[in-house]
Amino acid sequence: MELPSRTFMETPFGDFSEQKIYWQYVGLSQGYEIFLGFAEIAVGVLLLFRKTTAVGAVVLALLLFNVCLANHAYDGMVHVGSFMYTVAGVIIAWPYLQPVWKLLGRKEIVTPYYYAPEFRLPWQRYTRIAIKTLIIGVFVVYNYYLHLNDHVGYRFPHDYPGLTNAAGTYEVTEFRLNNQVIPYSPMDSVRWQDAIFEDWNTLTVLRNRKQHMDNANTARDERKSIDRRFEFRGIGGGRHFYTYTADTVNQVLYLINKNKAHRNETFTLKYTRPSNDRIILEGTDQNMDSLYIILDRTKKDYTLKPELIKWYYDYKED
């Protein structure tokens, strides 16, 4: 769950889905997120050993029940999965509940008995060790490796750098369509109201044209930049997200809408930078309509403390 992007900070609260709000405020609570991650890993390790199974099952049921409630409250799209893990924890802990109640509730002497298979033959013991080693290797070691190298989903395309020194929020000072100047209007469905360059190769544009809200919560995202959908999942309204490829030799940006429902929307725009805070775009869209756009960087001061979002925002100009 990432820290908020520049676009997130510029999006009206009402344009977010419940899921997006939950994911982003958990992303802001870095300590809480790390705690939850270690807690879930600890539960998995406890369940792998018979002497700690009961403790692991109880913590599993409590921890995942919290996740289950959050998914129901914020429509997190994994209601069934979190509920199944909660039920599994209760089933595993169930045989331990009666003797624990007798011991702590009734103050009775309890000698619990739980069936455990015996592995007397060498091949049985070796097979057991091999299977357990395989499970730990795949679900603990290998999964840790995948997370460490950012090969699982829900991530911004950090490894696809954006236009050099372009990250920031821009006011659309001038917008021409087919050589005709279109004045600013919040009701206009064609004219850009503002533009935001992220630190990676994403350009977002606000205009008065609704788009399909992507609420998918898949297990993983693709490695390609265009398929990294976390940044616009759960965001509606008129904010459009484009991934771009920059031809720095010819100074051309090739834009394509990241939303699968609007993937046919493309731009080919030649860019010039007369100053550090001005970008001029000139080119065509997918309908071969000509565009001429002047973007001027605006200075933003957000309520959130800069250290909370220092991954994305450069405050050197402050």
List the helices and strands and how they pair.
Elements (H helix, E strand, L loop, with lengths): L5 H4 L8 H11 L1 H18 L5 H22 L4 H26 L17 H27 L19 E10 L2 E2 L12 E4 L4 E5 L32 E9 L4 E6 L8 E10 L2 E8 L4 E9 L20
Antiparallel strand pairs: 1-2, 1-3, 1-9, 3-4, 4-5, 5-6, 6-7, 7-8, 8-9
Quickly list its features.
Lipocalin; eight-stranded antiparallel β-barrel; 34% helix; disordered C terminus; 318 residues; alpha+beta
What does this structure look like?
The protein is α+β, with helices and mostly antiparallel strands. The protein has two domains: 97 residues, no CATH class; 149 residues, Beta Barrel (Lipocalin), CATH 2.40.128. The protein is 34% helix and 20% strand. It contains six helices and nine strands; from the N terminus they run H-H-H-H-H-H-E-E-E-E-E-E-E-E-E. Helix 2 packs across helix 4 and helix 3 crosses helix 4. It is elongated. The C terminus is likely disordered.
